[in-house]
Fold:
Amino acid sequence: MGRRGRRAAVAAVVVVLSSMVAGGVLAATRSDDESALAPTRQAADQGIERKVDKLLRKMTVDEKLQQVQLLSDGQITDADAKAGVGGVFSLTDPAKIDHFQHIAVEQSRLHIPILFAYDTIHGYRTVFPIPLGAASSFDPSVATADDTIAARETATVGIKQIYSPMVDVSHEPRWGRIAEGGGEDPYLGSVFAAARVKAAQGDDYSAPDKVVTSVKHLAAYGQPEGGREYNTTDMSEQRLRNLYLPPFKAAIDAGSDTAMCSFNAISGVPGCANHETETDILKHEWAFDGFVESDYTAVAELRACPPKNPDEGPCGHGVAADGPDAAQAALNAGTDMEMVSTNIRDFGKQLLAQHRISMARLDDAVRRILRIKFRAGLFDHPYVDQAKATDPASFVTASDRAAARGAAAKSMVLLKNDGGALPLDPAKSTAVIGPLGDDQHDMLGPWWGQGKDEDAVSLLTGIKAQASGAVSFAQGCTIADKEPPNNTPADECGSDAGFDAAVAAAQGADQVVLALGESRGQSGEAASRSEIDLPGLQQELIDRIKATGKPFVVVLFNGRPLTLSKVDAAAPAILEAWFPGIEAGNAVADVLFGKVNPGGKLPVTFPRALGQVPIYYNHEPTGRPCDVNSKYNSRYRDLPSCDPLYPFGYGLSYTTFKVDNLNLDKSSVSRKGTVKVTFDVTNTGARAGDDVAQLYIHDPVASISQPVRRLRGFQRVTLDPGKSTTVSFNLDASDFGFYDNRGRFVVEPGRIDVYAGDSSTADLTKSFVVTG
Ligand code: NOJ
Structure:
């Protein structure tokens, strides 16, 4: 039963889409380390449902239309609060939050509290590594630590909803927001999404240290054409469901009670007017009973340009003629709350009168919002504990800092380490050189929340704290983090005036740490780049330092995969530190001096050249697989290799590991069965260290071409020298099945290849057969 073709595919079992697929089944079969994917969604609380119904019966149409409105900190007025506005975001002053909440609760007719929200993405005050960095840890406890602290700090000031986790799978390093997500893999992204939701919400997000999460951006926002922010996405059904939706499903299964629809269009249909993703999939298939808020002015952006009324906000997609049309499209597609623009609120009455929206749908949206407010405990505890909210001891505690430091160190990826260049000897004199060498501002990354530059530890400070030898510093050039005017290139390391001083510092030291990368403004929203190499003259700075002959290592702070071919050619050692957060300098020093042995792995592929983008490990095969030695195949004639510079799942250590003894407990399995996979990881070097055991599968013959590899399990292990451990994973239909182009989850009979190792290039392999 080795080969399968179309006929077999027709006979394949079609598993009806349900909450059991790619979430439930999968969760039940994970190893302990991935139990984060187990569903925790609670059954609706009937007491809450009755309260919601009672309130809804009392509400006027105007009050319902206020409830579906979400205003920014700059928009909210006393009058809005009195009228019963539904939500407010980005307001962080606890006194102001309390002020508006008192008006809403005491002066609005029905006393409905406001839901306050904030973009707590990788920390509120205690800033953790960017999510792409956290995903590099391949350890969901890093996300758990981040969201546990972030939820507590956020809730302390009276904010009960966070616009996180951002789970957009992305193959686009040009796109600045790749920094905010879990990288290119749906499975890794799912584990991290679930961990974040569970940590932020806990079992009951009415608790004073918990918040409700909003998983975003529904959907496929991570794949904008050309990597250009907000750009359109054209997507096959199978890709949407196999690559982009799984982390959303994982977040929903973990209990995320709100979601945000995306700016981008998917195959011509914008995220906030998309009935398929918002209603058919999210609300119906996945049984989501929370609410969907739009992204910022995304409802207004449904309108054609120029807008009939420019006061109603921006325009663009051209799927609505005017404001009423946009409100109709958004609400009817499943958007429950409108952020910043006010079309549903302003035109709702008119649309009801014209029967363009129904009262049932408006009631459904309001019911969803009220349900979450009840679950968040806002009716019982609407106000802010001002003493706690203004007490500095509530934020960035010593243990928060320790957690942020551990998370940052776990997130770092050692990309190169020729001749054991790292770790460095702290007793030798060290020159710290580079634009990010004594930087606090950029360490916080693109979503710094309420993080403060002065809370951040620069690399120079961190190195000084651990070095016993002399430490000097030369910046070489500056990284400005300033928005360039008129699309001129950002002025990041634009001058070599400081290079001579940098060379002199290198010559005066035993060893050099070069701190290079991007400004935080070059990552995140609205920060697409058309080149993804080191900005400005940083490569020249490397070359100047190399020419001194002094031993040097490169530390990178950045929010996306960069094209590092030249850096790789020049530098003996490269440590990818991402934007590590407030404990940046301490955590990098921990790794540089060997206190921590780096064990992170890349959650995203690093290309050799920009022209390879999109390049990702779980690509589909082609009829002409790449071969640099012959002509008519899928290759770039100007690149020496078919491969990326650094593949997904790759990362070095100060020790070495061996992966062997791959074993499957059976050679064939029914569609409903489970295959247990075990293999050994051994530390073959002289230091204790972490490795990430990775399990991939490939379906060689299927009705639609399957990715050459798919990650289906991982476990970060810590091993002393000479020690071994056996890791164990279970594979079932949720792993070897896939979605087809009709949106059906299919499990086809035939061979499945299993690969075990510690990167996506793992070559230890065995197979089993799925029987008919
Ligand atoms: C726009 C961003 O796309 C979204 O991620 C964020 O949550 C909202 N602005 C609110 O700040």
